[in-house]
């Protein structure tokens, strides 16, 4: 994979798109607090098995990635902040209001509106995996990310874009790590994004 990711090729773009699709479905499948799923999702054997599912002769069908249907949606109210200081401390922060300016409510004097991520839950069907219940985590693609090399941060990044967020972060990291680009070059370089539906693939 390292050789494929280092070169300009259709196989590289295909690998990145399929990796982003798998990651999005894995996040969608996880509806428990991240601390309870982190060990499973980061397990090297599981990651290797998910990677081995990728084929280079065709795209995977959604059913080959997950038995669950991912309902794509777009929002335009996400911002990201990365910060570093002279001591090497790094912080990343992504916040989102959700769909279209959050829930249209704000506490007077605080200066910010509230998100509407309760909208990510199912309220009518208790059999649904998305039914709101204690410890249930809402679906989100937010991915504030710090990349380490030998324990030292080399990248601090995130993105907006809902279904485009994960592939945007993934491709930027690959451009730096696999292709030796600077962060600016990596961000400016043309990319292929899979957005969860045909009209969002560019």
Describe the protein.
It is globular, with a radius of gyration of 18 Å. It has seven helices and four strands. Strand 3 and strand 4 form a beta hairpin. The C terminus is likely disordered. By secondary structure, it is α+β, with helices and mostly antiparallel strands. The strands form two sheets. Strands 1-2 form a two-stranded antiparallel ribbon. The chain has a two-stranded antiparallel ribbon with strand order 3-4. Helix 2 crosses helix 6. 32% of the residues lie in helices and 12% in strands.
Globular, elongated, flat, extended or rod-shaped: what is the shape? globular
Distance between the termini: 23 Å
- Count of helical stretches: 7
Query: Could you tell me the strand content as a percent range?
Result: 5-15%
Mean pLDDT: 81
Strand order of the largest sheet: 1-2
Q: Structural class given helices, strands, pairing?
A: alpha+beta
List low-pLDDT spans: 198-202
The H/E string reads HHHHHEEEEHH
Number of strands: 4
Helix proportion of residues, in percent? 25-40%
Query: What is the gyration radius calculated from CA atoms?
Result: 18 Å
Largest sheet: 2 strands, antiparallel
């Amino acid at each position: 994979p390292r050789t494929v990711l280092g070169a300009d090729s259709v196989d590289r773009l295909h690998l990145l798109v399929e990796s982003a699709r798998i990651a999005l479905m894995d996040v969608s499948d996880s509806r428990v607090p991240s601390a309870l799923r982190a060990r499973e999702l980061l397990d090297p054997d599981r990651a290797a098995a998910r990677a081995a599912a990728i084929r280079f002769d065709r795209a995977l069908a959604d059913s080959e990635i997950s038995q669950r249907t991912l309902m794509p949606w777009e929002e335009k109210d996400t911002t990201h902040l990365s910060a570093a200081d002279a001591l090497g401390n790094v912080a990343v922060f992504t916040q989102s209001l959700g769909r279209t300016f959050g829930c249209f409510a704000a506490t007077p004097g605080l200066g910010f509106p509230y998100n509407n991520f309760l909208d990510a839950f199912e309220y009518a069907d208790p059999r649904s995996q998305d039914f709101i219940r204690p410890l249930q985590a809402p679906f989100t693609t937010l991915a504030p990310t710090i990349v380490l090399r030998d324990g030292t941060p080399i990248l601090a990044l995130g993105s907006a874009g809902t279904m485009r967020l994960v592939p945007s972060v993934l491709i930027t990291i690959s451009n730096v790590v696999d292709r030796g680009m600077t962060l600016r070059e990596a961000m400016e370089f043309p990319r292929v994004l899979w957005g969860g539906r045909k009209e969002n693939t560019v």
